[in-house]
């Protein structure tokens, strides 16, 4: 009998990757939780066989409906930098869904967590630490869980971290890594790796799994993009993470702290372990080969690419 997995955030990038991977495997049935069952992304998943439940972390009855009968669940929480006290809201919502999963008797929770940067590196990165607090709570109530940690997304080149054309006609990549390497992955590939975890509860229960495909510099990113999109030329930004923190948009400080942690904190992500879970995990070079036309279309349609905020 197929195991029912409730996926939160399935109309977004990360949860969508998990839902899509599970829908390709007859071992699983998928239930997605969304604020709007009528959205295009929810309908697309429904057409592929997903059950759609309207719900919210702020509505306990909807969490009960979403988790009743589920063998497993994929949980991710979001930060809304534009809201006051967003960090406390995220922690509150994470604890609420953890309590609901415990009450429903879910056998395998997979939670998208992140590091306690203040504890590890000695400086804050608030939107990482909110997830660390939620993980601490899940462990304290002995939730049967596996904890996933994502790196940067290659897919953000198509959305919220688009290359920005500068005055000389070249394109600037805005990851402020100051020459250091950065771990990355394609979100759909991570979804298949997470499916591997859900397929083998006994092996992965209680563990923390850091996902990535590779760890390369932004200059290497630029070289790969330049190769695939020639004659366009790409280069890394010269901006520092401290300068990024001072940009005038909500969340800039927290994202600048994230880049600093990526640069100096040595986040624990394993390409070997990720490929153990999903041998098809692609390098950036392979991902670019698959997404060349999509990125060309983005660059052609958005002359102000890269000026929007990056959202983790």
UniProtKB/TrEMBL annotation:
<feature type="domain" description="NmrA-like">
    <location>
        <begin position="2"/>
        <end position="287"/>
    </location>
</feature>
<dbReference type="InterPro" id="IPR008030">
    <property type="entry name" value="NmrA-like"/>
</dbReference>
<dbReference type="Pfam" id="PF05368">
    <property type="entry name" value="NmrA"/>
</dbReference>
<protein>
    <recommendedName>
        <fullName>NmrA-like family domain-containing protein 1</fullName>
    </recommendedName>
</protein>
<dbReference type="InterPro" id="IPR036291">
    <property type="entry name" value="NAD(P)-bd_dom_sf"/>
</dbReference>
<dbReference type="InterPro" id="IPR051164">
    <property type="entry name" value="NmrA-like_oxidored"/>
</dbReference>
<keyword id="KW-0521">NADP</keyword>
<dbReference type="GO" id="GO:0005634">
    <property type="term" value="C:nucleus"/>
</dbReference>
<comment type="similarity">
    <text>Belongs to the NmrA-type oxidoreductase family.</text>
</comment>
């Amino acid at each position: 009998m197929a195991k029912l997995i409730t996926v939160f955030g399935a109309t977004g990038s990360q949860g969508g990757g998990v839902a899509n991977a599970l829908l390709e495997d007859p071992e699983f049935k998928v239930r997605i939780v969304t604020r709007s069952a009528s959205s295009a992304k929810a309908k697309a998943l429904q057409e592929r066989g997903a059950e759609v439940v309207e719900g919210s972390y702020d509505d306990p009855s909807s969490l009960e409906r979403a988790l009743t009968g589920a063998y497993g669940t994929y949980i991710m929480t979001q930060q809304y930098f534009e809201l006051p006290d967003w960090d406390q809201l995220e922690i509150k919502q994470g604890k609420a869904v953890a309590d609901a999963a415990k009450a429903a008797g879910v056998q395998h929770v997979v939670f998208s967590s992140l590091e306690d940067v203040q504890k590890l590196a000695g400086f804050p990165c608030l939107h990482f630490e909110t997830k660390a607090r939620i993980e601490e709570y899940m462990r304290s109530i002995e939730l049967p869980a596996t904890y996933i940690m994502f790196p940067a997304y290659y897919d953000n080149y198509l959305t919220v971290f688009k290359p920005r054309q500068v005055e000389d006609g070249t394109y600037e990549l805005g990851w402020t890594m100051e020459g250091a390497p950065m771990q990355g992955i394609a979100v759909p590939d991570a979804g298949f790796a997470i499916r591997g975890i859900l397929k083998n509860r006994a092996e992965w229960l209680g563990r923390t799994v850091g996902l990535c495909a590779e760890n390369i510099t932004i200059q290497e990113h630029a070289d790969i993009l330049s190769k695939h999109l020639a004659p366009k030329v790409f280069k890394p930004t010269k901006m520092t993470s401290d300068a990024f923190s001072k940009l005038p948009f909500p969340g800039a400080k927290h994202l600048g702290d994230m880049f600093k942690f990526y640069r100096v904190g040595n986040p624990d992500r394993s390409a070997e372990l990720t490929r153990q879970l999903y041998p098809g995990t692609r390098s950036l070079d392979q991902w670019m080969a698959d997404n060349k036309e999509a990125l060309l279309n983005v660059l052609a349609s958005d002359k102000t690419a890269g000026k929007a905020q990056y959202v983790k």
